[in-house]
Amino acid sequence: MTIQVETLEKLQRRITLTLPMAAITGEVETRLKKLSRTVRADGFRPGKVPMSVVAQRYGYSVQYEVMNDKVGEAFASAAAEAKLRVAGMPKITQKDQAGEGQMAFDATFEVYPEVKLGDFGTLSVERVSTEVTEAAIDKTVDILRKQRRTFSQRPAAEGASESDRVTIDFEGKIDGEPFAGGKADAFQFIVGEGQMLPQFDQGVRGMKAGESKTFPVAFPADYQGKDVAGKEADFMVTMKKIESQHLPEVNEAFVKSLGIKDATVDALRADVKKNLEREVKFRVLARNKSAVMDALLAGAQLDVPQALVEGETERMVEAARADLKQRGVKDADKAPIPADLFTAQAERRVRLGLVVAELVRVANLQAKPEQLQAHIEEMSQSYEKPAEVMRWYLSDRQRMAEVEAIVIESNVTAHVLAHAQVTDKVLPFDELMTA
C-alpha cells in the first residue's frame, strides 16, 4: 500500500489509498465460503448450496462489506503512519484510474486543529459571590408556608383582594372576535402573585362573587402567544368564588410537618440556610464557570473541524426530537427540525470542547479520584438517603463520566481565575436565584 497525503485548506486533508484487487477478491471468496455453510436455498440441503448460487445471491453485499472493511483498515493504517489526528469520518470516493490489478480511493477528511490558548494574564473575568442573608432565609420560609396554606370562602359581600384565590369564567376578544386560548371556565389563580398579566390581575380586584365585568388587557409585544402579542383584548369576566388564604404559623408543629427532627424554629432556619448555601454554591460556580469559558473562547485561536460541528448538530437535533417525544408530541422522531437552528450553538460547543481539552492537557487539570468522591458526596447531601445516591452514581460508568466532566470544568475555572485579571462582584441573592 502506498500513501499520499495532501493538505487542501485549513484542516482538510486527502489521502490516496491503493489496494491490490487480489486482497479484496480473496477475502470475498473466504467470506462466501463461510456463508455457504449456513445459507439455505430451495432444493438444496443446508451446507450443500453451490458456490455459484451463494455468489449470485450474496456476492454484491459481501463485496460491499469487504470493500468497506479493507478501505477502513487501509485508512486507519495510513492515518496512523502519517500521525494524523482525524476529526470525524472520512469521505471515501473511488478513483477511475489505478495501476493494473489495483483499486485506488481518495479519503477526504479533517484533522484536529492546533489550539493556541493565549495569555491568561490578559483575560478579564468577572467573578461573582453571593451571601445567604437572613432576608433570604425569611423568604424561603415564606415559600414553605405558602406550600402548606389553606383557603376558606369569603362572604359574598367582600370583594377580591391581594392574596385571595379567585375562581372565574372569562372570555377575551380582539376587535370583537374570540381568539385561541382566550376562554376558560372555573379558572383559578391567586391575586397578586404574578400568575396573570398585571392589567388582568388588577381588573378582578374588588369584584364580588356573582359579579361580571369587562375590561381591556394589553398583551406585551414579547408575549409568548405570537398571535396576540402586542394587541389589546377585551375580557368578559364572571367571578364565581373568592377564597382568602391562611398561612400556617412558624412554630414547632409547622417545623415537625416539614420532617425536621429537631422541631424548633432555629433548626428550621439552620436547615434552610444549609440548603440555600448549597444551592448558592452551585449557582455561583456555574455563573463563574460560564464567565471563564467565555474568556477562554475570546482568548483562544483555532480552526474548527466542520465534521465535528455537523456531528454535534445532529446530536442536538436528536435531543430536541427526544424532548418532543417525552412531551407527548406525536411522531416526534420524524419532526422536521432544521439543523441550522443549532449550528451556532454546536460550533461553540465544539470550539469550547477543544479549548478546554487543550488546557486540561497542558495544565494537568484532570479530575482526581478524591475530587470525584467529594463532588458525589456533596450532591448526595441534598437527598433523603445520601448513601443510596452515592452508590447510584458510583455504579454507572456514564454517570461517573458526567461527574468527571463537571469536576474538570471546575478545575479549569479555578485555574483560569488564579491567572486571569479578575474583577469581584457581590451579587444579590434574589438576582442570582432568578438569573
Question: What is this structure's SSE topology?
Answer:
Elements: E1 3-7, E2 12-20, H1 21-36, H2 51-81, E3 86-94, E4 102-111, E5 124-129, H3 134-147, E6 150-153, E7 165-174, E8 177-190, H4 198-204, E9 212-218, E10 232-246, H5 252-257, H6 265-299, H7 306-326, H8 343-363, H9 369-380, H10 386-394, H11 397-419, E11 421-426, H12 429-434
Parallel strand pairs: 5-11
Antiparallel strand pairs: 1-2, 2-4, 3-4, 6-10, 7-8, 7-10, 9-10
Helix pairs in contact: 1-2, 3-6, 6-11, 7-8, 8-11, 9-10, 9-11
What does this structure look like?
This protein is an alpha+beta fold and 435 residues long. The chain folds into 3 domains: 3-111, Trigger factor ribosome-binding domain (Alpha-Beta Plaits, 2-Layer Sandwich), CATH 3.30.70.1050; 150-246, Roll (Chitinase A, domain 3), CATH 3.10.50.40; 263-301 and 340-434, Trigger factor, domain 2. Helix content is 46%, strand content 22%. The chain contains 12 helices and 11 strands. Strands 6, 7, 8, 9 and 10 form a 5-stranded antiparallel sheet that branches. A hairpin with a 4-residue loop joins strand 1 and strand 2. Helix 6 packs across helix 11 (397-419) and helix 9 (369-380) packs across helix 11 (397-419). It is elongated. The protein starts with a strand and ends with a helix. The mean pLDDT is 89.
